[in-house]
Amino acid sequence: MRRRQLVQLTAAALAAPSLSAFAQSFPARPIKLLVAFPAGGPTDITMRSLADNASKVLGQPVVVENKPGAGGTLPAQQLQSAQPDGYTVAQIPLGVFRLPYTTRMTWDPVKDISYVINVTGYAFGIVVPTDSAIKNWNDFVAYARANPGRLSYGSTGTLTSPHLTTELIAQKLGIQLNHIPYKGSAELSQAIVGGHIMAAADSTGFAPLVESGKLRVLNTWGEQRLAKFPDAPTLKELGLDIVQNSPFGIGAPRGTPPDVVKKLHDGFKKAMEEPSYVQALARYDMLPIYMDSAQYAKFAQDTFSREKALVEKLGLAKPT
Predict the structure, then answer these.
(1) Which of 79, 76, 47 is nearest to 63 (CA)?
(2) Dist CA 17 CA 96 (whole Å)
(3) Is the overall model pTM greater than 0.90, yes or no?
(4) CB 71 within 8 A of CB 102
(5) Is 39 a residue whose pLDDT tops 70?
(6) Which class in CATH covers the domain with range 124-220?
(7) Fold category of 29-121+247-313 in CATH
(8) Kind and range of the H or E run holding 70
(9) Rounded to 5, what percent of the chain is helix, strand, coil?
(10) If both were cysteines, with which of 185, 200, 221, 248 could 244 make a disulfide (CB 3.0 to 4.6 Å apart)?
């Protein structure tokens, strides 16, 4: 036993200087940032702005790789096989915290990710084509009640915040909708403009289509009305006690050295403060939502517990 303890202590002593030297030299090569949604949507555009800014701060390129699908959870899954050296980081959408309740999996989204920093959250809403017979939220609800299961709406994927929040709205109103999942905002926008679905629940990546007269906003999901869409009521104004802004940030593989996590945090925090990033967010009515590493880790734990209740309430939990 004493010999084993001596070997462990010796190994730890030898490792400590190498870890320290590694952290001091980090980053020495490009960093890969996995983004959970396709190129061209609001998440991709805002994260690329953040990555460009972080590249200047960290002194190495931060290269975005889009990994759409699986409700935005693929980047977090890929962290599980990545080296814990800080050179692979990932966007962590809220859907990651629902995964264990809906899918059989071998890793824990709270324990198996090193939480670096939270950077923003979405502004959401429901839109319909401008030429739709549905002119307002009352029309939407009336049609759904008169035609159970026939009102089709798209979202950015099964078990994403737009999907689950819309299903929660439907449950509270006693209506049945027909959900059609897409891989991201760009694909969803094409579907609704092309007449393939009757409505869309999404972040405000739909703003350009509203401004060009192709879509109409029926409601938004924040605490207050959005300045860009002052005529669109919030869910709370419509009698639904629901607010959804789905904060998201950046995580690294479990076991990433704390000094490396701190360097990543500090680099991305400075990147958040650049006017170009704030302006990119503003295009989609998004705001910087900062949490440091400890705050973000606690948010992950709290959200993990809260999402369990939502998934169970909607009857979407996996069989035990």
Answers:
(1) 47
(2) 35
(3) no
(4) no
(5) yes
(6) alpha beta
(7) D-Maltodextrin-Binding Protein; domain 2 (3.40.190)
(8) none
(9) 45, 20, 35
(10) 221
